[in-house]
Amino acid sequence: MQTRSLRCIIPLLFTVCFLVVATAVFSQTDLSSIDRELESRKKELGENFVMMVWKDTLVYKKEAGQFNFKTLAPLGSSSKWLTAALVMVFVDEGKLSLDDKVARWLPEFERYGKNYVTIRHCLNHMTGISDEGNAAKKAFQRKKFSSLEEEVNSFAARNIRVNAGQDFWYGDLGINIAARVLEVVSKKKFDQLIKQKLLNPLGMRRTTFSTIDASALNPATGGQSTAEEYLKFLVMLLNKGMANGKQVLSESSVNELLSIQNKGTETKANPKYATGWSYALGSWVVNESGDKPTVIACPSEAGTWPVIDLCRGYVSILLLKEPLKDERTATHLQIKAAIDILMNNDDCH
């Protein structure tokens, strides 16, 4: 009995000692350089934001104005990463494959001759379906739909711009098609589904995709979360799918989620802030070594930046109340550079 007790206690003691050492190391690290960088960027960031950095433990937190790490805020396009991860939960459960045809579950796509569009095409923005128009126009178009089903059926009826997989055209269309497939497979609404399968297991109790006006759910940009909760999602991915002692996503699914999808594919439509970046599934590859991503991010139009640095082994999130006032990519990369210096890994470039 004593031997069994020791076997249980020793791993726990090891974990506690590791966290104590990690905390001690970072408590001795001068984090003021991050403070100074954020302060110098106050004009672009606005008065209300929160920044959090995690490496083995929470090593940095900065709250400004009326924002704190528990403030609920719109995620915009940072929602895409969560939706793509939910698809991978279904892959782990054996309910679908990324290379399954969408028409298998959505007959409208077969009816309109879009039999070759796969779930992977949807997640990596290569459906080939016409998706033109600016953000304001698209937002206006969405208002006429009362459900995700109605919206996705309208996508099926659109013109085919090019063959699926032929080029990369960033937008919301593919992500919402993939989310609708999940609704059909599970027979549940997307907002209920993502809570049950992904958010609750991660302890993201306040994160939601529900709408208060009964309008159509938007899995591509309609999420709301806090910095504290979104950080839990990032840590899970950094830890190869593990969270709260459970395997929320398999390691193979995490690897697929974070792998480059559009290498060698012509880019036809890209947001300005992601110029020159590759794309994974629901997120952008900011830096890569060969064909392997080293830094992955999922920026929103408002300037929110969740980041995983696979090389340096940390995650961070900057959640903003107001859109960035100046060029967002340069601002975020300069803030990240200040964090990188403290992570002390000379092998990362």
Can you walk me through this structure?
The protein is an alpha+beta fold and 349 residues long. The chain starts with a helix and ends in a 6-residue tail after the last helix. The protein has one domain (32-343): Beta-lactamase (3-Layer(aba) Sandwich). The chain has helices at residues 2-27, 32-40, 42-45, 79-92, 107-111, 119-123, 135-142, 148-156, 173-186, 190-199, 227-238, 251-257, 328-343, and strands spanning 49-55, 57-64, 73-74, 167-169, 224-225, 242-243, 246-247, 266-269, 278-279, 284-289, 292-297, 305-309, 314-320. It has a seven-stranded antiparallel beta sheet, with helices on both faces. A two-stranded antiparallel sheet has the order 3-5. The protein has a two-stranded parallel sheet with strand order 4-8.
| SS-based class | alpha+beta
Give the count of helical stretches: 13
Unreliably modeled segments: 1-28
The CATH homologous superfamily is called DD-peptidase/beta-lactamase superfamily
CATH fold topology: Beta-lactamase
For this entry, what is the oligomeric state of its chains? Answer: single chain
Largest sheet: 7 strands, antiparallel
Shape: globular
Radius of gyration: 21 Å
Structural domain count? 1
